[in-house]
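User: Design a sequence. Structure:
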């Protein structure tokens, strides 16, 4: 089955505005599906491609967008059972057969497909993606949950979920999130849902207030505190929390150099630092602190598809709220709103919705 009349917005060169584009007829390969996009989140990785010149694996012109939810409207022969299903498309779709995939490290699969990087993505009305790894969404959805909002699970929710899972976070732990915008805000909620005591650090009072309403037991504004006072406040909270876990579990979710400095400086004996945010910039630090503190630092590139259902479950159970952290915009406004996201002029995570 061919899908005619799909349209989207594509990037033709770094630094250029997104351009409206009429896609040629879309036909799924034997293992592919065509998803009618309900929503596609705008991520700072997209800005990296469009503005900062981070190279995409498929050269321009390219339709960006890797946080996609929607309904399967066409499926290849091997993907027929997906037809009609509401799905979340993983931001990183591993091949399943290479040595990394077989070793249980699918996020570093070199044959992975990332929509909006290896092929056209979700800033469009329809997108063609491999069916492997799709996350089915049980229906009906809880009242008030817009299928478009589920798009941000594809990266902004599952990436901190995977970082938290790798950290082995549980009810005995104190979790610290440095940067509580979209990704960090979801991280705070996930950590709280898992029973941890949670500290949120940011420079934006509005984000801190949101975090405090959604799982953070302590919020700290790092713009008005020095490193020593921050450390003391976190240590004091950890002590008061009665949690018996050894070492703080720190999540760097700001993706800015100052946030990375703060996160590293908070490491204590047996501490764990998860690097979730991305910046191309460098920081100076004393790496030997890891040795002296017997501490661990670890990154993760996205989240394996098999971890999507448990993350989705937290959203469906109402333990992770999406609505306060996102703002929907019409896909037709993609060029202007994308520019605003690049200028950091939008506080919430933008979701583009085809009208
Ligand atoms: Zn992303
Ligand atoms: Zn692979």
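Assistant: Done.
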């Amino acid at each position: 089955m061919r899908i005619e009349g799909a349209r989207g917005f594509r990037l033709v060169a770094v630094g250029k505005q997104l351009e409206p584009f009429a896609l040629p007829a879309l036909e799924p390969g034997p293992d592919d599906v065509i998803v009618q996009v309900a929503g596609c989140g705008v991520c700072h990785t997209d800005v990296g491609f469009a503005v900062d010149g981070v190279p995409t694996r498929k050269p321009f012109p390219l339709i960006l967008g890797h946080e996609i939810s929607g309904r399967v409207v066409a499926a290849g022969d091997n993907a027929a059972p997906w037809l009609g299903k509401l799905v979340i498309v993983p931001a990183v779709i591993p091949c399943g057969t290479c040595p990394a995939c077989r070793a249980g490290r699918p996020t570093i699969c070199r044959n992975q497909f990332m929509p909006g990087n290896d092929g056209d993505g979700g800033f469009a009305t329809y997108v063609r993606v491999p069916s492997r790894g799709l996350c089915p969404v049980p229906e009906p959805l809880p009242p008030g949950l817009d299928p478009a909002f589920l798009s941000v699970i594809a990266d902004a929710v599952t990436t901190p979920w995977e970082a938290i899972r790798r950290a082995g976070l549980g009810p005995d732990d104190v979790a610290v999130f440095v940067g509580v915008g979209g990704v960090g805000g979801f991280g705070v909620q996930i950590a709280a849902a898992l029973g941890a005591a949670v500290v949120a650090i940011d420079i934006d009072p509005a984000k801190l207030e949101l975090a405090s309403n959604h799982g953070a037991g302590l919020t700290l504004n790092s713009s008005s505190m020095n490193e020593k006072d921050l450390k003391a406040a976190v240590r004091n909270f950890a002590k008061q929390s009665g949690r018996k876990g050894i070492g703080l579990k720190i999540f760097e979710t700001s993706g800015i150099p100052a946030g990375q400095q703060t996160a590293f400086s908070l490491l204590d004996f047996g501490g764990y630092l998860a690097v979730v945010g991305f910046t191309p910039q460098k920081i100076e630090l004393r790496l030997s602190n890891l040795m002296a503190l017997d501490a661990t630092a670890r990154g993760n590139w996205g989240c394996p598809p098999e971890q999507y259902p448990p993350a989705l479950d937290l959203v469906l159970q109402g333990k992770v709220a999406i609505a306060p952290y996102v703002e929907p915009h019409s896909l037709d406004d993609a060029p202007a709103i994308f520019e605003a996201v690049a200028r950091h002029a939008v506080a919430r995570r933008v979701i583009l919705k085809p009208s």
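The longest strand covers residues 32-41. The mean pLDDT is 97.
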